[in-house]
Amino acid sequence: MRTTILITSDEFKAPGTELFDFDPIVPGGPEWLTKPVLLALLSSTLIIALCWAAFAKPKLVPRGWQNAGEYAYMFVREQVAKPNLGKDADKWMGLLLTVFLTVLVWNLMGVIPFIQFPVAAHIAFPFVLAVSVYVLKVYLGVKHHGVRGYLKGVVYLDGLPGWAYGIYAPLILAETFINSLFTHFIRLFANMFAGHLLLAFFSSVGFWFLFERLTVLGVGIGVLGVVMTILMTAFEMFIMFLQAFLFALLASMFIASGLKGSH
């Protein structure tokens, strides 16, 4: 976290949205090549390497990376894929495991020393991932049921009088084709954005009152900042895992809705 740039005066200044502004890594180079982009590329490389180490030469009795890889695979299969996709779960495990691991590694980048920036706190990355799932959902729905059949399945309102369709159908269509997309990536982005700010704030408090402006009265505040940084880091790691799980779970639900042609 770039907290040191915030301590430039005689008064404590809480970190703000400037934590999410990044200059190009190479001065004068491509503007898009920033720290979040580099971390996203690093995350992909790391995931590929871990999966290769776990599954390239599987053994009957798993050990080491294979053991960790199979644990992750079984977790996603049993807790994410099967509850929504049933017998089709195994067909989609490659995608769902990739989504889960990608979001998890993105998030964990926020607690790795000297890196300390969760990729998903940059809205473009969860947005692109959510749009990919959204496009797949619509594609599967149209492919398996046709445009008319898919829309009919989405707005299926059995038992309601005809006049009610004019009220509920637009709401259901908006939820299926608009709200679902935004809630998919906004939830992940907002949690990582807020968590990064909180960690930056408490670590800045500890640094300021214990190192920059050490006073008798400020020691207690500085120690509190350090303690809160440790506690919030542990809590944030739980949130990072939870958000990866929820993102993959929603992805499996959206894929299932496309296959079944229903809301």
UniProtKB/TrEMBL annotation:
Keywords: ATP synthesis, Cell membrane, CF(0), Hydrogen ion transport, Ion transport, Membrane, Transmembrane, Transmembrane helix, Transport. It is found in: Cell membrane; Membrane. The chain crosses the membrane at residues 37-56, 92-115, 121-142, 154-173, 185-209, 216-235, 241-259. It is a multi-pass membrane protein. Belongs to the ATPase A chain family. The keyword Membrane applies. The keyword Zinc-finger does not apply. The gene is atpB. This is ATP synthase subunit a. InterPro entries: ATP_synth_F0_asu, ATP_synth_F0_asu_bact/mt. Signal peptide: none annotated. PANTHER family: ATP SYNTHASE SUBUNIT A (PTHR11410:SF0). Key component of the proton channel; it plays a direct role in the translocation of protons across the membrane. It comes from the Bacteria.
